[in-house]
Amino acid sequence: MGAWSPLPAPRRWCAAGTTRGAVYVASGIGSHYNTDVARSVEKWDLTNQRQRGWIWEKMGKLKDGKFSRDAIEAVGWRGKLCMVNVKGDAAKEGIIYDVEKDSWEEMPEGMLAGWRGPAAAMEEETIYVVDESRGSLKKYDHVKDAWVEMVENEMLKGAQQVVAAGGGCVSCVQMV
């Protein structure tokens, strides 16, 4: 039986996600801002734990610490992790981490423009986003580099989380 492996540097306001049987944590800050932590990427490979032990592995660094401002999701999609640096409707930057190449690339323009709320991927094939201002659920068309609206509903306004699995999406909204 394994044990939970602590991160080498505790952090908050980081990006966290999974793809290809591994957990990734990127950026964030500890008790004080530290450039190394803000630019770091750590991988916990759940498929090779017996061979390598329950350890976090350092991966390719981010180019800067701009992704340590907010707790964001790193959405696993087609062997890559997609992340933006700010939640919601604000102006933002987006990057994509290729886990096979251990390298970063810019997020396509259309993908970034439509990332206006919480996002999730179904089976790492289709990314969904809830536009929390409009109250609409959209899916990403990578061929057209555009978001396609699936449904608009008042109950989606203010969405904070979305999960996609088994052919459906579930969204959470804070009730006041």
Task: Provide a quick synopsis of the model.
Helices cover 8% and strands 41% of the residues.
Description:
With 176 residues, the protein is mainly β. The protein folds into 2 domains: 107 residues, Kelch-type beta propeller (Neuraminidase, 6 Propeller), CATH 2.120.10.80; 60 residues, no CATH class. It contains 3 helices and 15 strands. It is globular, with a radius of gyration of 16 Å. The protein starts with 14 loop residues before the first strand and ends with a strand. It comes from Sesamum latifolium. This is F-box/kelch-repeat protein SKIP25.
Question: Mind sketching the topology for me?
Answer:
Elements: E1 15-19, E2 22-26, H1 35-38, E3 41-45, H2 49-52, E4 57-58, E5 72-73, E6 75-77, E7 80-84, E8 94-98, E9 103-106, H3 109-114, E10 119-122, E11 126-131, E12 136-141, E13 146-152, E14 159-165, E15 168-173
Parallel strand pairs: 1-5
Antiparallel strand pairs: 1-2, 2-3, 3-4, 6-7, 7-8, 8-9, 10-11, 11-12, 12-13, 14-15
Protein name: F-box/kelch-repeat protein SKIP25
Organism: Sesamum latifolium
InterPro entries: Kelch-typ_b-propeller
